[in-house]
Specification:
- This protein is an alpha+beta fold.
- It has six helices and seven strands.
- A three-stranded mixed sheet has the order 4-7-6, with helices on one face.
- Strand 6 and strand 7 form a beta hairpin.
- Helix 3 runs antiparallel to helix 5.
- The protein is elongated, with a radius of gyration of 40 Å.
- This is PilL N-terminal domain-containing protein.
- Keywords: Signal.
Length: 195
């Protein structure tokens, strides 16, 4: 009988393991209650699609009948310009050449701007593009100048960031270099050595 007892134990353990494996994990879920009809979410009606007028060109091409961003804002037009190779070309000549067919012209009013126009044109600026017209103008002028576009008069003006004088500063005389006071430069401190 002793030989039968371990077999019963093994059979009992096997039956218990089979029962656990077949039943798996049991979880209890809360019953799902449908929302009342009054509180049901209404589905919004799809908005009417915006009609974009198009024209068929050829068999497979449809073209929208709307201006591009570069046609709305002329400074966004893409240019690729090679300057005429003149040994005495100036920044003003380069700016005029870039603006030649853009619809804009340079304003020639301020004395400081005339100083910009007289600078020699760098060799790196003999070919500009492809880039936007705004970027080409800013490249030619350099980082010391701000670009101002008058869209009504279609003029491009440049000024230094600190040159916009208000009515209060218009009567004040310009500060010369001799009149400026600078704080004394600190002397370097050296330790552990002779002077």
């Amino acid at each position: 009988m002793q030989a039968i007892c371990p077999i019963r134990r093994l059979a009992g353990a096997s039956l218990l393991a089979a029962t656990v494996l077949t039943t798996g994990c049991a979880t209890t879920a809360a019953p799902v209650v449908p929302p009342p009809i009054e509180q049901a979410i209404s589905i919004p009606e799809p908005a009417a699609p915006e009609l974009v007028p198009v024209v068929r060109y050829g068999r497979y091409t449809l073209v929208e009948l709307a201006p591009t961003a570069a046609q709305r804002d002329l400074l966004l037009q893409t240019i690729d310009v090679s300057m005429p190779e003149d040994a005495r070309a100036t920044v003003g000549d380069g700016l005029r050449h870039v603006l030649k067919r853009s619809g804009y012209q340079l304003c020639e009013t301020a004395h400081a701007v005339i100083e910009l126009y007289a600078l020699p044109l760098p060799a790196a600026h003999l070919h500009l593009g492809p880039m936007t017209l705004r970027d080409a103008l800013l490249t030619l002028a350099g980082p010391a100048w701000e670009l101002h576009a008058d869209d009504r008069a279609r003029q491009i003006c440049f000024e230094r960031p600190g040159d916009s004088m208000s009515a209060d500063n218009a009567s004040a005389p310009p500060v010369t270099e001799a009149a400026q006071t600078f704080p004394p430069a600190p002397m370097p401190v050296v330790s552990g050595g002779q002077p």
